[in-house]
Amino acid sequence: MKIIRSPTTMAVWSERLVREGVKIGFVPTMGALHEGHRALIREARLRCDALVSSIFVNPAQFGPQEDLAKYPRPILQDRALCRKEGVDVCFEPTVEAMYPSGFQTMVTLPAITRRWEGEVRPHHFSGVATVVTKLFGIVRPKMAIFGQKDFQQSALVRQLVKDLNLGVEIVVHPTVREEDGLAMSSRNVYLTQDERKRAVMLYKSLRAGAEAIGRGVTDGKAIGSAMAQVVKKEPAITIDYLAVCDPTTLEPLSTVRGKAVLLGAVRLGPVRLIDNILVVAKQARRKF
Ligand code: PAF
Fold first, then answer.
1. Buried/exposed code over 56-70 (b: 16+ C-beta within 10 A; e: otherwise)
2. Which of the ends of the chain has fewer CB neighbours closer than 10 A, N or C?
3. Catalytic residue status for 37
4. Does any ligand 1 atom lie closer than 6 A to the CB of residue 58?
């Protein structure tokens, strides 16, 4: 596996392969790789000829009070995982190379980021959209894989690729979970043993929403309360949002007919957890 740090060297490597007609697959990450990332890399490996993964803790997507400085950076472990899973190039640019002095272009998607994570973390998504656009320009992938856990992020990337005609196929891989259902996340390492036990409450609440839909409940508010009831059993948890939304626009649904996404974010001590479940409500059968 090659380790490339310079964006120019990366672009030259990709340019040669693109000219030869090689299909480049791409898994962008911020490192601290876990089984969820491994699943993305494995899927990309099956779908492409050459595989690039980036490890870049992107300062532009962290708010001033967020965990940029303490974000885990186990680079040797990360490289070992990439090497084992058949990554061809691990792209590890520096902050200075990605955002040199004089850098000024930011990419924003106002509608899709208006709510949920976008509301709680202002500027986060313009940091994500900007770095993803830059990485796509440097790596030139034919396809890129994102995890469903960051549902709003993957919806944003799909919209970005469509709006800017970037010509990258976006694949969203289902969330990889711990045995009890907790979604895997690089930030789970911040949880104490006690918080870790309680953290599964978020997934349980999303399941309660999905079960209500399965029983035929279609009213968005009623589904929201079914989810909230579960989290409220755990006093240490504060709800940021629990919502029933259209999976493309992420606008809240007052009535669920067909596809919906249940989105949730909660705070447990200093840790914020996010998760989601996609559901399809059964359509009422037409009677003849
Ligand atoms: O999901 C992530 O790890 C990051 O938001 C991404 C897509 C690598 C952009 O920095």
1. bbbebbbeeeeeeee
2. C
3. yes
4. yes
